[in-house]
Every structure is written in structure tokens, then in C-alpha cells.
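Consortium newsletter contribution from the modelling node. Members have asked for a concrete example of what our holo predictions look like. Here is one, prepared for the calcium ion complex that several groups have been discussing at recent meetings.
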Amino acid sequence: MSNTEQGANLPGNRAILLRGGRMAKHKGQIASYAPSPGRVLSSVSTTALGAAISLAGRHGISASNRGTDLSVESTGTVTGSRHVKFASNRGTGNLTVDVGDAISTNDGYGIHARNYGSGILSVSLSGSFEVGSEDGIETLTNAGNLSVIELRQSASVLSASDEAITNNEGVSQVGLAAGSAFSGAVLLYDGRDALMIEGGADISAATVFDGGGATRDTLTFSAFTGTLGGTLSTNWESLTADNGSTLNLDNTAAGFGLVTAQNGPNEIAMGSGLNLGGELQIDATSNFLASHADMGNVAISGDTFNDGLIRLADGQSGDRVTVGGDLSGSGSVTLDVDFASGTNDRIIVSGDSAGARQRLHVRIASGHESTLQNTTLAVVSGKRTASDFRLADGDFVANSGKLRSTQTHMRF
Ligand SMILES: [Ca+2]
Ligand SMILES: [Ca+2]
Ligand SMILES: [Ca+2]
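And here is the predicted structure:
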């Protein structure tokens, strides 16, 4: 076949568009490759053919390149008894794999893409994707080089091997768009890896999100509402609730590193007895709910920056939030005070609060303000100044290691 032929019909009504390079049917598969520098494969595409097509073979599509960029695109059904799509780029440029429709395989990988060059490896997927014994999508680059993997709206990956998406020691950026779904694991191994999960992505069948061994892996939720257990995520150094997300952390055993809420309104809720192992950063648009609707203690091991709202007020007094490091920021803390029982919520800072500007909002859980009593709302062990805490509706703050206030100095 010539290296410029388009829409070639192969036996079994298989069709492929090839620009450059050489295409052949070999051992039941459609194989495209560039055997010499003068015949460089740059693009394999079924997209321009219009009507739905079906490609099947040992590898549904196999493409390798020794030139610069390589692009592999398909619409219509592609199946393979081994890899559905095998793409290898030994050129200097980018490798792009774009799947527009359903693909499936009984064995091997769904998409096995290797970029030996320094360019970007991109894999985009639409449609359903059922995979046999190996990974759904595997991208391989040299260490330090980037893979971008995107599950677009309506894309789904179902892998019998439990490994839906994997990357090697390279850098990766993985996105699960609204309307996408997958089952199994995301395993990103070494290298700086990033996973973004949008609201509307179905992660109910996920088994684990594993950022791998590097120290700057980031897990981000955007406009997402749901529960994230610590057992579902591991090896992340950063967890972010972004763009209007509501995250309920019901298990922190695996750790999340730096936890951030930004570009809200966001809400991060954490149950009683849980400990965030890293730092916490709450921006002015976001809330952190501690022991919400529960009685007990919540701890943050690292420094805490609060420009937004830390909520202990939930109608039950006696909750504690403990900051293991320093407290900073110009946010608010809401606390229940039960004048009838003499109990109240409290924020405890093991480090410093000097320079913070936190407003304390007191909510009466029961009793009434005619009862005169001392109420310790905040305790600081480290450096502190008189202006670190201020009653939002009051006029009395003492700087004696404890902040004390009486109802006579509060205006509710
Ligand atoms: Ca990686
Ligand atoms: Ca890591
Ligand atoms: Ca409370």
C-alpha cells in the first residue's frame, strides 16, 4: 500500500487512514510503521472516514514511529485480542492517542503507549472501554517527561485487572471529566504526578488512587461532592478541594499531605477522632467542618492557615480542634457554648498564633446569657499576641495563655 493512501479497505471491512509511513496487515492486525528514516509515520487516523468502522486484530491498531510526532486517532469500534492500541514513538516529538468510540480487548492492554522521545504523550478517551487482563491505559515515558491522560465526558474504563490507568516513573497529569467513569485503580508510580477529578465523574467503583513514591504528587477535586476515605487514596503529598467542592474525609489513615480548600465555596468535613497528618489551608471562600454533627476531637498535625471558616458549631458543645503547628490567617472560628452544662467547643494551638487575626463566633447551644461563667474558647501554647483572637460580637480578649470571656462581655 502506498504511504499516502486514504480510506483503504482491508479484508474484513477494516479501514484505516494513514499519512506517511507504511501500512500492512500482519498476523491479523493492522500494523503501521516506518521502516526507514525516509518513510516517516506521522498519523494514523480513522476519524476522517466518517462512517463507523470496525478494526480488529491481535492489536486493533499498532503504530510505531521513528520520525518526529506521531498521532493515532480512531472513531468506530476497535477491538484486539492483545492490545487494542499499541503506539510507540521513538521520534523526537509528541505522541498523541485519541479514541473516539468504544474499544475492547480480551487480553493485554487497552492502550499501551510509549514515548521514547522528550515530547508530550497525550491519551484522550471517549466511549466505553473494556479491557482484559492488563491495564486499561498505560503510558510510559522517560523519567521527567510528561504524559497527559484524559477521560472525557461519557468515557468509561472497565479493566478486569483492576488497573484502570497506570504511568511509570515519568510525570503524569490525569483528568477524569464530568460524566466519565472507571473501575479499579489509578497507579502513577514515581515522578511528579497529578490527578484531577471533576464533579460528575463516577469514582464509585474506584479501588485506589495511588500517587506513587515521589514527593510532590497532587490530588485535586474540582466542583466535586463526595466522600474520600484515606484507604482510597495513598502516596499523595497534596489534596485540594477546588472550584466549589464538598469533601467528606471519613478516614485519614493514609494521609493527604497538604490539604487545601480554594476557589470556593468549598467545604471539607472531617469526622471525630481523625487526624490530618499535614498542613491545612482554608481560603476566604471555604469552610472546614470539624467533628461536624459529631462529638469529639479533630487534629491537624501541621500548620493551619485559615482565611475562611473553621466550624465547630454544630449544636453540640465540647468539640475540640487541635492545631499541632502554628495558626495564621484572618478567618473565623465558630464554637458552641452551653451555659447550662458549662461545656463549650475549643480551638487548641500547640504552636504559635502570633500574627493571626481570627474572629470567634459563639453560638449558644443551651442556657442563657444571664449565667455568669468563664469560658475558654482558645488555648495557645506558643507565641501569641492580644490581637490573635477577637470575639466577633464581643469586646473582651485576655492574653494570658488562655482566652477567657464571660457572657457579660459578649453581645449575642
Ligand atoms: Ca509517574
Ligand atoms: Ca507521592
Ligand atoms: Ca460543636
